[in-house]
Design brief:
The structure is a homodimer. Chain A has eleven helices and seven strands. In chain A, strands 4-3-7-6-5 form a five-stranded antiparallel β-sheet. The first copy, chain A, has a two-stranded antiparallel sheet with strand order 1-2. Chain A folds into two domains: 59 residues, Orthogonal Bundle (Arc Repressor Mutant, subunit A); 186 residues, 2-Layer Sandwich (Beta-Lactamase), CATH 3.30.450. By secondary structure, chain A is an alpha+beta fold. Chain A is globular and about 60 Å long. In chain A, helix 1 packs across helix 3, helix 4 packs across helix 11 and helix 6 packs across helix 9. At the A-B interface, helix 1 and helix 3 of A face helix 1 and helix 3 of B. Chain B binds a DNA duplex through helix 3.
DNA sequence: AATATGGATTTCACTAGGTGGAACGCTATG
DNA sequence: CATAGCGTTCCACCTAGTGAAATCCATATT
């Protein structure tokens, strides 16, 4: 058997973690890959130098770079969505007292968080989530997006997503059809219990509900309300704020369409 | 300065060569990257094991695998094009005595060779080119395709292509606008002198002329005539066969449209 | 202001892991 | 049958990668 190259293996696993999770800190990469930090630092430095990754100047976290052969993403449409959503999500935060996340599809059935109103002092949840790509199966945003798609497109994406799925996500992927039926029935998606429930990353375990933005067959994103699980139940937040969340989604959708037209 | 990781660098350069050139043999990779073959073999074995590459069982050449975050390709439309072109390119070979290549766009401004009539004994040029992605700037097929696009789409693609361009291709990329004007003026595209002119890969230095298939704004591919440079000049082949080449392109375009309708 | 915390980064001695020239086996060509 | 070029294997060499520990640095806490 031909020998393999360990460094290349490690480089690929880092690329895979970043490409499926979006922006990643060194510590997060260490946790996910099980590699020592200096090793990751050197490999990431190489990837950055080759522009497969870029590194944020302020917090030195990594995300995919210009040379990464990405699935056709539409940076323009992401910009439009952020612009369309800016004031609406602030208003929703004011009205509810909760954090609001805005996510855009990135073309492969997944979404990426593109804006947020979270602040640590107000919502007890760390705000540095922009660029993060939550699980398509287990997160509120991811499920809201998938549930709103036309059946054919949903089938195509979920088949493609299943290929790259491992570990806990695998189980969630198998349970997806049931979950999406539930989402459609109740009119909003929820974050799976325990999903990414590392208190250290949030300051506390979060709960969230999310709905899609757009009309069936042309979904342009998703918005969510997010709060500390210990403070409110999903049911109570849904009862109190779901209508506002839906109104916000519709407003953003309209504004988005208007901006493009 | 943080140290870099040489193996990772090498792995990336291999991925880049394969992703832009399509199917690649070990020897081709060795030539392009300047690395010794055993090193490439080990790195490719790693990439194959991680499914970033697949290796053809018959001739052990490499191409992108299921884990490679690929640009959306359209296998269906490629199939249609091959079907639509099959008899037409055979007829063109019969009529001209030259080799004919058929290429389809892969969605990022580049084309991939999807069928050929080349046989070594008849045309003195090796036929194992299917799956290969010729340079968008320097090959006849690539330029014919770009020159036929609408200005906006051409601008978008060439901007995107320029990002990933290095070495000799970089110079060619800068000269592209002039080259495309020339292509439009004379009605066909030519292979750049010396482009991949390694006699060893062809049995001899080839020349080629190419035209696009389709109507402006909806280009579905390109066809080329290819021959040994020492046997005919570009001018003489164009004078003798350009009309047949154009007729073939039109015929394939019509058939393609009919098959889809 | 001082202290504590938890990241990112640097250092450095060690040696596992990668290297590549040379040799091999195979297949197609002449 | 000889040749050429390919992918692949071998293996002695030693560099290039490693990772525990130390250091730096920014932010939160007292």
């Amino acid at each position: 058997m031909t020998k393999l190259n360990r460094s290349v293996e490690r480089g690929l696993s880092i690329l895979e973690v970043i490409s499926s999770n979006g922006v990643c800190s060194l510590a997060f990469l260490a946790e996910r890959t099980g590699l020592p930090k200096p090793t990751i630092l050197r490999i990431c430095a190489t990837l950055v130098q080759q522009r497969w990754l870029t590194q944020s100047r302020s917090d030195s976290r990594y995300r995919v770079g210009s040379r990464f052969p990405r699935v056709n993403s539409h940076p323009d449409s992401i910009d439009s969505l952020v612009e369309a959503g800016a004031s609406a999500i602030l208003a929703l935060t004011d009205a509810t007292g909760l954090g609001v996340d805005l996510a855009a599809p990135i073309g492969n059935g997944r979404v990426e968080i593109v804006d947020t109103t979270r602040t640590f002092s107000e919502h007890g949840i760390f705000p540095d989530c922009i660029g993060y790509r939550p699980s398509p199966f287990r997160s509120a945003l991811g499920c809201a997006f998938l549930a709103a798609l036309e059946p054919e497109q949903e089938a195509e994406y979920s088949a493609r997503l299943a290929v790259h799925t491992t570990g806990k996500d695998r189980a969630a992927a198998l349970a997806l059809p049931a979950k999406l039926r539930e989402v459609r029935a109740q009119g909003f998606a929820t974050r799976e219990d325990g999903y990414w429930g590392r208190a250290v990353d949030y300051g506390g375990i979060p709960s969230a509900i999310a709905v899609a933005i757009g009309s069936p067959g042309h979904i342009v994103g998703a918005v969510s309300l997010i709060w500390l699980a210990e403070q409110h139940s999903v049911a109570s937040v849904a009862k109190a704020h779901l209508d506002k969340l839906n109104a916000t989604a519709q407003e953003i959708g309209k504004l988005y369409a208007a901006n493009l037209g």
